[in-house]
Amino acid sequence: MTREPYHDTELHNSDDIVWNWQILAETGNIQAQLKLGLIYDHGDETVRDPTKALSWYRKAADHGNADAQCILGLKYYKGRHVDVDYLEAAHYFLLAADQGNADAQLFLAMMFESGQGVMQNIEAAFSLYKKSSLQGNALAQFSLGMLYEQGANATFGSMVIPADRARAVACYRIASASGNLAARGYYEALAEQLSPEDRNRAESFASMLDITGAETINHFVSSSSILIPFLKKKSKLVYRANMG
User: Which helix (H) or strand (E) is 153 found in, with range?
Assistant: First the structure.
């Protein structure tokens, strides 16, 4: 006798909950595949099973789920139940970042900045930090502030990121408001050093980083963000070649 999934609103035991998610997942429901990955990953509703979690994450990722792709990227980046593999991490982060996943954009930016799994490229890191920042990612906002405070030469291309304390202060301020505790200390230390003119520039730049207005975001991206179309063309083999 085939077991049917429940559709009523009564509380059911954990086995029933997992069974219902699995029924959906096996029919190709991507959200159910992601949910099962999370269930087995964290031990919610059932015994924790990292192997099953990875399997369901991969199914969801292969079907294009950006959250699953980002999770797999982080697994490989940190070596959680898999061997550390920066190449695989960059591959999955790239897939998710290309769909606009703010966390994946952050992690991929970190890899480009440090040269882990990809060729070091400050220009790409700078662009990805911006994209993630505009979605309210506090760590990306803080990292963008550090790039502005220190300045950097792009590893490839002609782009140079000049040191700009006003923009750094703006980033630290927004990051602090977004919940990054470290950013507050950086903001307070640097803000008092600004001239009145730079304070005005910081206010202006902070308003562009404020994610409350779509027109402001679109204008800022189109006028200030460095497009990196080569990312979409990168294959894992290209990444591997660049690592050598």
Answer: strand 152-153
Q: Looking at the whole model, is its pTM more than 0.90? A: no
> Which structural domain, as residue segments, surrounds residue 24?
15-63
- Residue 15 burial (CB count, 10 A): 10
Shared domain check, 225 and 195 = yes
Residue 20 in tokens: 């219902």
Based on the domain organization, do 204 and 129 belong to the same domain? Answer: yes
User: What would you report as the CA-atom Rg of the chain, rounded to the nearest whole angstrom?
Assistant: 21
**Whether residue 54 is found in the same domain as residue 76:** no
- Digitized pLDDT (tens) for each residue of the chain, 244 residues in all: 344 444 444 445 667 788 888 888 889 999 999 999 999 998 877 888 999 999 999 999 999 999 999 999 999 999 999 999 999 999 999 999 999 999 999 999 999 999 888 888 888 899 999 999 999 999 999 999 999 998 876 544 446 788 899 999 999 999 999 889 999 999 999 999 999 999 999 988 888 776 433 333 333 333 223 333 333 334 343 333 333 3
| Rounded distance between C-alpha atoms, residue 224 and residue 222, angstroms | 6
135 and 179 part of one domain: yes
Residue 233 amino acid letter? K
221 and 151, same structural domain?
yes
